[in-house]
Amino acid sequence: MTPTVKVSLDEVRNLSYRILIQSGYNREHSEAIADMLYTCQLDDCQSHGVYRLLSCQSTMQAGKINGAAKPKVSSDESAIVKVDAQDGMSLLAFNSGLPLLVEKSKKYGLAAMAINHCFHFSALWPEVEKLSAQGLVGLSMVPSHAWVAPAGGKRGALGTNPIAFSWPRPGRHPFTFDFATSAFARGEIELYQRAQKPLPNHVAINAAGQPTTDPDEALEGAMLTFGGHKGSALAIMIELMAGPLINDLTSLGSLDFSDQIPGVAPYHGQIVLAFDPARFGYDPEDTDNDAAEHLFNEIVDQGARLPSQRRFAARATNLARGYVEIPQALYEDLKSLEG
């Protein structure tokens, strides 16, 4: 059992903010990043919670990110919002463009936001859930670093390439999923490495292209996509949608940009799509004819689990008790960063 430390919810946010300020991020970026880390840690998402402070600091130390960048939001009469992150972290750029994305999606029924020139480390589900909280359907995707081998390949060409989706359910938690197209998220492998635990089978290969369960070998070699050729094709789609389509880097370009300095966050773009169900004819208030809720009920009645149910349960538990638990070794590392 990995030793853990109880950390109050206020301290999760405050500790994150202090470390980010000390690392060189300005107030606006530190608040946006700390809010994301708090949200993920509250839901027991260990790989994308306060653990990511290590990457935030490493990215700043590498001298590539602009910790005071002011995002530039632009648009025309179309349904597209463009946000230039100005070489800053993606989170402030997303927050800056979100109001206009919501406005355009309700005007046109469907709108898109392209975020360019951003560093990205975070989970996507908190962002798409900001859309579903507005009654919109949200979809988002990003590339990363070229750490993942395509199906049948032997070296990294694709990113972990997460995709997230959120469907609004008035009065209930939204239907949300957020997963990497790699068999494991990069952060999960790093956590296995920190805990000195072997990886499951079929998630990584070593530098020679052979299967491995050693986290060190996996980080030196390449990760694998889930579902073989199907996950590989989905990852390629995400490369195209969040790269060339919005005139930004693929995962290969992101890795080159980082000079492969360990711990530096990927640098690329992000695409976010928002759909207004009402403009498409869906009425969530028509409970007698709600096909979506009928589907969800059928799934749950069979004893199956909807995505994010565990996360929502963890949130309720942590809010009720007022603290989260994080690995003791990580907490000590974070306190040393603060010091």
Can you give me a brief rundown of this structure?
The chain is of the alpha+beta class.
CATH class: Alpha Beta
Question: In what order do the strands lie side by side in the largest sheet?
Answer: 2-3-4-11-5-7-8
Could you estimate the helical fraction of the residues in percent? 40-55%
| Main structural class | alpha+beta
Rg over CA atoms, rounded to whole Å, is: 20 Å
- Helix/strand order: EHHHEEHEHEEEEHEHEHHEHHHEH
Counting structural domains, the number is 1
CATH fold description: Ribosomal Protein S8, Chain: A, domain 1
In whole angstroms, how far apart are the ends? 28 Å
Q: How many runs of DSSP E, i.e. beta strands?
A: 12
List the helices and strands and how they pair.
Elements: E1 4-8, H1 9-23, H2 27-42, H3 53-61, E2 72-75, E3 80-89, H4 90-108, E4 110-119, H5 125-132, E5 137-141, E6 148-149, E7 163-167, E8 175-179, H6 186-195, E9 204-205, H7 215-220, E10 222-224, H8 229-241, H9 251-257, E11 267-275, H10 277-280, H11 291-301, H12 309-321, E12 323-327, H13 328-338
Parallel strand pairs: 3-4, 6-10
Antiparallel strand pairs: 1-12, 2-3, 4-11, 5-7, 5-11, 7-8, 9-10
Q: Overview of this structure, please?
A:
The chain is α+β, with helices and mostly antiparallel strands and 339 residues long. It has one domain (4-182, 225-297, 301-338): 2-Layer Sandwich (Ribosomal Protein S8, Chain: A, domain 1), CATH 3.30.1370. The protein is 42% helix and 19% strand. It has 13 helices and twelve strands. The strands form three sheets. Strands 2-3-4-11-5-7-8 form a seven-stranded mixed sheet, with helices on both faces. A three-stranded mixed sheet has the order 6-10-9. A hairpin with a 4-residue loop joins strand 2 and strand 3. Helix 1 crosses helix 13. The longest helix has 19 residues, at 90-108. The mean pLDDT is 95.
